[in-house]
Amino acid sequence: MSNVIELETEDRLEYSFFQNNQGIVQFRVRAPNDAHIALSTAAAEVDPMYEVYIGGWGNTKSVIRKNRTKPDVAEVPTPGILDANEFRGFWIRWQNGTISVGRENEIPPFLSWSDSERVNIEYIGVCTGWGATGSWIIEPPRGTGTAPGYQPGRPANLSSVCWVPASNGQVPPRSFAGGEDNGEPVYVVRAQFNGGLIPGKLIPSHGQSYVPWGGAENGVPQYEVLCDFPGQWLAASGGNIPPNALSAGQSEDGEPLYVGRVVHDGALTVGKVQPSHGVCYIAYGGQELSFPEYEILVQ
């Protein structure tokens, strides 16, 4: 999806579908109530499928529904979230079974749900109903459609991302330095550890990477280094994950993990952000330390 899509939807509850397998959709909608978005494996209402209802039930609440079946899997009061005379902006992100819905220019989602089933989302549909018509502006995900090296069809969180296998302190060309320790660059890496793919740090002079896990600083001699990355760091806190955050791995339970960093003991140290825990973990001094305020790596 490289261009803005503009369309009108009638009061019919019939989805208009377009392809999007990028892991995120950003849009603006003008409607009095019931802006419905489908996340589907095909350009049709098929199972498995998710639906996000924004401003349903007379513009009083928003929900996530799976396979067009009640009860809804997630629900939150959102009185007045839509407006019949004004465009309102939103984003929806799907990754590793987690659906997150947020407002434009806001990092934390107001609605989210995690599914144990992994559904391969390929199409997005939009519609209105229950007395509402709608005007839609579907935007390319920020920082992906125009990012250097972007390739259509790749997930948004993987565009322009290169992970290079290395070991024993090796630093591949054009590695991404995310921190500093005693004057030595600290590089962004990830490594397999105890069933997860864990973001962490590489200090070349130590001859290995380190990942935070299980309360400890765990040395891992084999790792992947982030290279050729044009991203930047944003201040964040708690489990607030920006829509364009770099997903760098997953926990042993399948939860997406992101790259974070903090200043501790005079060092700028790279670690992992685990949204459900609301903190950034770093491996430092033999321990896994947690910080509720941190910087997170975005594209």
UniProtKB/TrEMBL annotation:
SMART domains (UniProt xref): DM9
Annotated ranges, domain Farnesoic acid O-methyl transferase = 14-141
Task: Name any one Pfam family assigned in the record.
Answer: Methyltransf_FA
Lineage: superkingdom: Eukaryota
The protein depicted here goes by the name: Farnesoic acid O-methyl transferase domain-containing protein
Q: Lineage of the source organism?
A: Eukaryota, Metazoa, Ecdysozoa, Arthropoda, Hexapoda
